[in-house]
Amino acid sequence: MQKMNILIVLAAAVIPMIVGFIWYNPKVMGNAWMKAADMTPEKAKGANMAVVFGVTFLFSFMLAFVLQTIVIHQFSVFSLLANEPGIMDPTSESGKWLVDFMAKHGNNFRTFKHGALHGTIAALFIVLPVIGTNSLFERRGFKYIAINVGYWIITLALMGGTLCAFV
């Protein structure tokens, strides 16, 4: 049976914060992002950072929770069979089939590399359209989009790899 490992999901939820500390550091992309976002150090200091980081962690947890269903193919089996009578009973006919199936195929595509690939795809096909659309309406430039999407490509690749390899 495919089970969620809450500790790995929590660990994956920390990844956006770690990558963000590095990516948005002034020595990396921070100064360029501040200029592209029309952000000043004074504006940045006006935020309640406890709330910002608390909500950020909550959002990161939500993201990690759903990302595992994208990067781990075995979750698809469960979504297809969720209403199958007896599927969660390992002694039923359906349950025996599922146990046998997972014994044969439960570790297929369960590598960091494969999860990182799917995390990258999620960033390109989910995050880019969302940030790109918002940025166009906000009249943000290409640099703003590239900096933020670049962050999410790296972040979701690392999150996806971690989730796929260790959940």
Structure write-up:
The protein is mostly helical. The chain has helices at 6-23, 26-36, 41-45, 49-71, 74-81, 93-105, 112-137, 142-166. Helix 1 packs across helix 4, helix 2 (26-36) packs across helix 8 (142-166) and helix 7 (112-137) packs antiparallel against helix 8 (142-166). The chain is elongated, with a radius of gyration of 19 Å. The protein starts with 5 loop residues before the first helix and ends with a helix. The model has no long low-confidence stretch (mean pLDDT 95).
Which features does this protein show?
167 residues, mainly alpha, elongated
Low-confidence stretches: none
Radius of gyration: 19 Å
Shape: elongated
> What's the story with the biggest beta sheet?
none
Strand content: under 5%
Helix content: over 70%
Distance between the termini: 12 Å
The assigned structural class equals mainly alpha
Order of helices and strands: HHHHHHHH
pLDDT averaged residue by residue: 95
Count of alpha/pi helices: 8
Number of beta-strand segments: 0
Itemize the secondary structure elements and their pairings:
Elements: H1 6-23, H2 26-36, H3 41-45, H4 49-71, H5 74-81, H6 93-105, H7 112-137, H8 142-166
Helix pairs in contact: 1-4, 1-8, 2-8, 4-8, 7-8
Give the gist of this structure:
The protein is an all-alpha fold and 167 residues long. 77% of the residues lie in helices and 0% in strands.
